[in-house]
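Input record (one chain):
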Amino acid sequence: MATSSAIMNWNMARFAEALLPAIHSVDPGDVEAAKTLVADVGEQFRAIWLATMRQKLGLGAPHSSDAALIDGLFDELERHRPDFTLFFRALATILRGDSSAMEALLPAPDAMAPWIAQWWAQLDREPINPIERAAAMDAVNPLYIPRNHKVEEALAAAEQGDLAPFLALLDVVRAPYAERTDWSDYAGPAPADDAPYVTFCGT
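The corresponding structure, as predicted from the sequence alone:
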């Protein structure tokens, strides 16, 4: 998250630099106001990001300990390297009484047990039915995203004149939240023996 915030700040600073001459020509006094806006971007980004993460984690009203829980989560995700998309879906299955999906994502079944215990403690502050909370989480955590290997398959087929894989993928990502058994092939990451995916800023 810190990296994203730094990138956002850098991009906004460069954008503002490009606009400052035009702003100055209209009203020199607005230059300082523009600088203030740019300086506030990091704080605004963090506030919105934390609100989004609260939804993804099924947290209710904001609490002073939310930021530490969320920051700690990304330390754990970096350490254990589960698939991010599947991780958030697996959290909801824990609320339904099934930890098998989470255990399958981690290097050891109890790899994130301390963090999950902290998460449970946060949830216990509000008397929300676990099944309802899980449904709310599923509504904001997609199961299907345009995975790179699926996009590449669709592009390769389209180059040969076959648009069927592209149209199928389009159908899937237009309905990313509701699980469908016939779409199971779109839910997982690339096969383990796939080469690392390389992309570029201009992609």
